[in-house]
Amino acid sequence: MRALYDSKSISIDDRGIKKLLTKEMKYQSWLDVEAALAQAQAEYGIIPTQAAQDIKKAAKVDKIDFDEMNRIYQEIGHVFVPFLKVLVKACPKESGKYVHYGVTTQNIQQTGQLYLVKQIHDKFKGVLSESLVNLANLASKHKATVMPGRTHGRHATPITYGYKVSTWISELIDGIERLIELEKRVFLVMMGGAVGTFSTAPEYGRKVQTRVAELLGMGEMRVPSRSIHTPKIEYMMSLSLLCNVCHRMAEEVYYTSLEEIGEVSEAYKEGVVGSSTMPHKINPKLAKGIIANSQKLYSLLNPVLHSATRMFEGDSSTYLLFDAVMEEALQLTTEVLLRFEELTRTINIIEERMHENAWINKGLDNSEHLMMRIAERLGKDQAHQLVYQVAIRTAAYGEDFLTNLEKNQYITEHFTKEELSKLIDPGSYTGLAEELAEEMSQLAKEYAENLS
Hints:
Shape: elongated
Oligomer: single chain
CATH class of the largest domain: Mainly Alpha
Number of domains: 2
Number of helices: 21
Helix content: 55-70%
CATH architecture of the largest domain: Up-down Bundle
Largest sheet: 2 strands, antiparallel
């Protein structure tokens, strides 16, 4: 499978992640697990030490005859057995007897995939660390950049752009914490054999599994059942939640970069073409890639939730689905996170336009501010009614808010024009926006340092 929008089209550094997603690395992960299994078994005297050493030497993709593997597959129709046959052939004859000793296909494939996912997972954390630093810088730099707050697609009370960024930081940290917390449940070795009962070697099966886990730097399943899939589902769900944060920012960028709003824009590189027919087009390439790939990622959860409930102790329909879906989830997440880092680092903030938009209603967005001041004298209900009458007339007829305020006798008795002007200034009513932006900026830097 391939991501809907991949980073090749915009030359993003993939930090070595995509190499880990290749077929060669998948096979190498199987080889690494087979080598670890042989070493563990040799340490417990189950197979000869020389055999384990020979298997380890042979367990390299450049020593595997893939043409022969494909030929055998065409002949027998089993995905994994051809791989084992060419691995056996790559070993000395006596040592080849001990390849894949006492385990089953899914033990190697699932352990290998999770071993590879763990490596990709660590690289994800590196990219997220960079993104946190980018967001920290944005939040701090624009902690006082006033802009409209919006609810239901309309102006609410003013905020700062730094505050908006602080919400992304907070959610992103939650997503990172989920990823770290689930490591102990996801990156686990499974060496229980055909149905997970260590039937081929009940006397040493658990010890071998524990040792394989140590050699691979992973944990181990308490019960190595082939029908337990919820840890993998949890991982994919956590990736979806993480990408959902990126998606939310991308949606904001996508829409606030519209010419009619114009508060932000993606960095532009001369020579990039936005349309085959409209020469003027400069499209939000990073944002749309995040949006599309995130939406595709969410769609993967439904089939795995259903497939995980297949009956009995194992079913290849489930394994095949999970293998493919996990691979696609990693590809999609890679595209989202790489684009997100690039976007958070290169986004253009157009402060002048934010200021203009904050004033587009000529102070009307601060009606709550004025109401709360009047409420100190009249109480909330009467204050709301009074300001509502002025505000709604202003909004309905496109009139000037300050002018209409000055026509109200009660208001002019208690507030001067200078005081009213200050009360309706968007910059005077952003609450703790600056403080929250700075707090989250510092927190993001701390988290980034711990991740790297």
